[in-house]
Fold this sequence. Notes:
The chain has a single domain, classed as Immunoglobulin-like. 0% of the residues lie in helices and 38% in strands. The chain contains no helices and eight strands. The chain has strands at residues 9-10, 25-29, 33-39, 48-53, 56-63, 82-89, 99-103, 106-112. It has a four-stranded antiparallel sheet with strand order 1-6-5-4, with no helix packed on it. Strands 2-3-8-7 form a four-stranded antiparallel sheet, with no helix packed on it. The chain is elongated and about 85 Å long.
Amino acid sequence: MSLAEWPFDDFPDESLFTESWAPAVDLKENKKAYIVKADIPGVDPKDIDVTLENGVLTVRGQRKEEHREEGEDFHRVERFSGSFARQFSLPDAADDGVEAHMKDGVLEIRIPKSEKAVARKIEINS
């Protein structure tokens, strides 16, 4: 499937919801579900909020700034801290029963497809 065919759309004004940084996200699907994976290392799952409302999946949270000791000088800071939010419009085929798991800094959200969206073989009676 090419990206042009992907059923998710970024929320049209996503930049309005991204305050400091945005985690990298992979979007994929299989026969039974849509799957969203977000790289959010260093963020406690308690600091992440995943919501589904009116067909829009929202992932928001916050990475706390590293505590700086007196006398420490940073020569380069590339790891972002602060709030983030990503929003995606879900396809009509998405169903309730969304599950979210976090392992090794990767948040995985599984959105089951509705029974209508799952391909099935139709018997032809003679």
